[in-house]
Design goal:
Blueprint lengths: L17 E6 L12 H21 L6 H4 L3 H4 L3 H12 L3 E5 L6 H12 L3 E5 L5 H15 L4 E5 L14 E3 L4 H9 L8 E2 L6 H11 L17 E5 L5 H4 L3 H9 L7 E6 L1 H6 L1 H9 L2 E9 L3 H7 L7 H11 L3 E8 L6 H16 L5 E6 L7 H4 L6 E3 L16 E3 L4 H26 L15
Parallel strand pairs: 1-2, 1-3, 3-4, 4-5, 5-6, 7-8, 8-9, 9-10, 10-11
Antiparallel strand pairs: 12-13
Helix pairs in contact: 1-17, 5-6, 15-17
């Protein structure tokens, strides 16, 4: 998509290139989108949820701080991979993960102190889009000639450019590299790998066909109690390159009191059971599974490879290794009905009752522009009622879409019911085990 070129001339003006990599925080400003009843449910849910997680999993974290640390302990490994490449290109780099309610002020201070030529914004949280617009405006106010490049899974569906920034869509390595090495203004406002000139592609693959391990020792990273690894088959060595961690992994021994969590597909977990058993010996405390739905027809229609019957097996394996389990459930998949939602709620109760599921999380499906379900919505029985990406937020009380098989009103009613039942189950565990909210205080430092 052609647009007005950047106002800045060459971004490299004789000095060393300075690149600031910003992992955009999740936004918790939902109040305008929620009823008082739903807000009360969410607040109660987070209250009991944080008590349990800070007693079972994140034992070094205060309940008061858990709500806002997610952007810090979920390291953005895509941005860290980009940093590895930028360093090899001779750039000065910094990784920055602003957090909490004052994140915009933190960003302003970072811009003034580091004075970057290029800022890369990574939108890896479902609520990052709205705040990324605020970040772009702030950068433009204070650093008018700085190139801004935004990317991440929650910008993939954008059809229209973002004013003041370049957007990298799809496989981000090639667009990132192009924006890094090119000194000239860009006439593209949305960049995909197919837009990258052949000369730039060839140079990238000549240098980086085998992506390097991440050298986390050399990064200026925040020190937090837990680092999360997003694991898919074949990606482990690209995602984790901290040498002591790898040595511990190979030896099957814990190192530096590191604790970490893993987010993975159930099918990958089952294929790599021995890998996760080794993980459990060196600091794995929690695994995040995308369970999504207990209905096999719905899973099949959505294009999932999971067999519903494998859920119980995977959870049993994880619990045998004494690893806590967080299960993600989606609401509003194509073909969703009142009966399927009721069935999922019953499954959550059953798994929690058996001690196989520690923390359930649920949210709506996000049907973003550019996805097959968006372009073929009618075929899948989806009514697209919201086209503004800033308002397609899975955590909102009301879905940003409609389905032919269930009304919006019924989805909201059953979402409330699911929260109530989950809160009841979590409270029962708190009472049974005598868990208490942790007092606010200094975080103990471990590897991250």
């Amino acid at each position: 998509m052609k647009a007005v070129p950047e106002k800045a001339g060459k971004v490299r003006k004789g000095g060393k290139m300075k690149c600031l990599f910003v992992s955009m925080p999740p936004s918790y400003d939902y109040e305008k989108e929620e009823s008082k009843q739903y807000r009360a449910l969410r607040n109660e849910y987070f209250k009991v949820y944080t008590i349990i997680r800070t007693n079972k999993t994140l034992k070094n974290v205060d309940s008061h701080k858990l709500h806002y640390i997610d952007n810090l302990h979920s390291l953005n490994y895509a941005l860290l991979s980009f940093i590895s490449i930028a360093k090899k290109e001779g750039a000065a780099t910094k990784y920055f993960a602003p957090n909490g309610k004052n994140w915009l002020k933190e960003l302003s201070r970072e811009l003034a102190a580091f004075r970057p030529n290029i800022v890369y914004l990574g939108c890896s949280h479902s609520t990052s889009y709205k705040d990324s617009l605020k970040a772009i405006r702030k950068i433009r106010e204070t650093r008018k000639n700085t190139r801004i490049v935004a990317g991440g899974q929650y910008l993939t569906g954008l059809r229209k450019p973002i004013k003041g920034a370049l957007v990298a869509k799809g496989d981000g390595f090639l667009p990132f590299y192009w924006t890094l090495v090119s000194e000239e203004p860009f006439s593209f406002k949305i960049i995909t790998a197919s837009d990258v000139p052949e000369k730039i592609k060839n140079a990238f693959f000549d240098k980086y066909e085998d992506f390097p391990y991440l050298d986390l020792d050399s990064f200026n990273l925040p020190i937090m109690p837990v680092g999360r690894i997003y694991f898919q088959l074949g990606c482990l060595n690209r995602a984790v390159g901290h040498k002591p961690w790898l040595e511990g992994y190979v030896a099957g021994k814990s190192c530096l009191n590191l604790t970490f969590s893993v987010q993975t597909r159930l099918e990958d977990f089952l294929r790599c059971r021995d890998l996760f058993e080794r993980f459990a010996k060196i600091g794995l405390v929690e695994v995040h599974f995308g369970i999504e739905s207990s209905s096999q027809p719905i899973i099949d229609r959505f294009g999932g490879k999971l067999e519903a019957s494998h859920v119980l097996k995977a959870l049993e394996i994880a619990k045998k290794s004494r690893v806590n389990v967080l299960g993600h459930f989606l609401i509003g998949l194509p073909g969703e009905t009142k009966e399927s939602m009721e069935k999922d709620t019953a499954l959550i109760e059953k798994l929690m009752g058996k001690g196989l599921l520690d923390f359930p999380e649920f949210r709506y499906v996000a049907y973003f522009p550019g996805t097959p379900f968006y372009s073929q919505a009618e075929k899948f029985g989806i009514r697209l009622t919201e086209k503004n990406p800033a308002k397609i937020v899975p955590e909102f009380e009301k879905p940003s879409f409609g389905l032919l098989t269930i009304s919006k009103k019924e989805m909201v009613r059953l979402l409330h019911k699911r929260y109530r039942k989950t809160i009841s189950a979590l409270k029962a565990e708190i009472k049974r085990k005598g868990f208490k909210a942790r007092k606010e205080g200094a975080l103990e430092k471990t590897l991250f």
